[in-house]
Design a protein that fits this description.
Low-confidence stretches: 1-20
Distance between the termini: 31 Å
Structural class: alpha/beta
Bound molecules: pyridoxal-5'-phosphate
Helix content: 25-40%
């Protein structure tokens, strides 16, 4: 959900978009590059092969369905956090479709069941409420093990008073006969295998007895196993041993790990100013188009970022703090210059909004042969249609 230190290493290797190939596209636009997506997908496929785990794309992180066919060749399906996401996964992502939501409404449940292979309830309350409706469906329950890796309280599923899953082993055991699986999501941007291993051991210690009675266990997302130095072989061995010990099918729900580094946000400089620092205003907005960075108070990333000319890159919304970050360039910036923010795939397109009526970035895909095609554009009618 938020950014990782190791990402900086990947991104320093990233290259800017070749404007010659994208000359016809009007900025701003998100550019998904399949050749950058592919290495992540190959690692996912390798992990599945070596460990027997099934990997489902977490649509909350990335739901740009134009590349779902490509991704589904390397993954087992998708998982969701709402009725609309589960429906999208059902309609567009081949393979298994898991339904999960912090809470379903009565009027949603029938369609959620139609669109899903498994439903994971967040609480015993929801499991009971929809016991009759979901009878005969594969059912699971989210369990909160009380430990996590999040550095941000805002994103910490194990924070005090967390509503994310049931925490008491006795309460979970009492409903175990109504479910066949459990979901634990307690990793967050976790690039340490040791920490993952430690937390899985804690889960085994606290919930092992119940897990023995289950058919499947989802360990959620947040494990950065596609990172450069991640010991994939150790992770595969650990997951395989876990599956064998408890006799369960293990699932992972990668979001960020699947799409890290796979897209850029392409923008143009509209104006420059000087107020103690060099300021460049671009045709995008961090608040509207890369919202997570603002929420977690982190700067965007710019490839290269070398040179003698320091510039603060600012968004065009009226928010005073609409600032992408400070970067260095080989020459002073001027109106018309093209810039490319790196790592713009995860938690960006799913969160974009119409604040200030700023033009929503289009979505383009660069194919493996290097050709780029526009798959979605947004115009005034979309802006007006989002309100009434
Ligand atoms: C239940 C669940 N599964 C999967 C994910 C995906 O996590 P990430 O994008 O960090 O891999 C999340 C993220 O919040 C989640 O809450």
């Amino acid at each position: 959900m938020v950014r990782l230190m190791w990402l900086h290493r990947i991104l320093t290797k990233a290259v800017n978009v070749d404007p010659a190939k994208d000359i016809a596209l009007q900025t701003p636009y998100y550019l998904i590059d399949k050749s950058r997506l592919l290495p992540n997908l190959k690692k996912i496929a390798g992990l599945r092969e070596a460990s027997g785990v099934k990997c489902l794309l977490a649509l909350k992180c990335f739901a740009t369905w134009s590349v779902f066919d490509f991704m589904s060749e390397y993954m087992d399906g998708s998982t969701s956090s709402s009725l609309f996401e589960v429906r999208l996964g059902h309609e567009k992502f081949a393979g298994e479709t898991h339904a999960y939501s912090v809470a379903y409404a009565d009027h949603e449940i029938a369609q959620v069941l139609v669109c899903s292979d498994k439903i994971i309830f967040n609480s015993i309350g929801q499991l009971s409420r929809f016991a009759k409706a979901s009878h005969g469906h594969v059912r699971g329950l989210r369990v909160n093990p009380g430990v996590s890796t999040s550095e941000f309280d805002l994103a910490d599923p194990a924070r005090a008073f967390s509503r994310l899953g049931e925490h008491d082993p006795k309460s979970v055991a009492a409903v175990a006969d109504q479910i066949s699986g459990l979901m634990f999501h307690n990793n967050c941007e976790n690039d340490s295998f040791e920490r993952f291993d430690e937390m899985l051991t804690l889960i085994e210690d606290r919930f092992g007895e119940i897990i023995h009675n289950m058919d499947w266990i989802s360990l959620g997302g947040g494990v950065h196993f596609t990172g450069d130095d991640y010991p994939l072989d150790r992770l595969a061995a650990r997951l395989k041993a876990f599956a064998q010990t408890f006799g369960v099918q293990v699932y992972l729900e990668p979001g960020e790990a699947a799409i890290t580094g796979a897209a850029t946000l392409e923008v143009s400089v509209l104006d420059t100013m000087h107020n103690g620092k060099n300021l460049a205003i671009v045709d995008s907005s961090i608040e509207a188009h890369m919202l997570d960075l603002l929420i977690y108070r982190e700067p965007a990333k710019m490839a290269a970022n070398t040179g003698d000319h320091a510039w603060m890159i600012c968004g065009k919304s009226c928010l005073a703090g609409d600032i992408f970050g400070e970067f260095t360039f080989d020459a002073p910036l001027k109106a018309g210059d093209r810039l490319s923010f790196q790592d713009a795939a995860g938690y960006t397109m799913v969160k974009k909004n119409w604040f200030n009526g700023v033009k929503m970035p289009s979505i383009a895909i660069r194919e493996l042969d290097g050709t780029t095609r526009l798959v979605r554009d947004f115009d005034y009618d979309d802006f007006a249609a989002a309100l009434s």
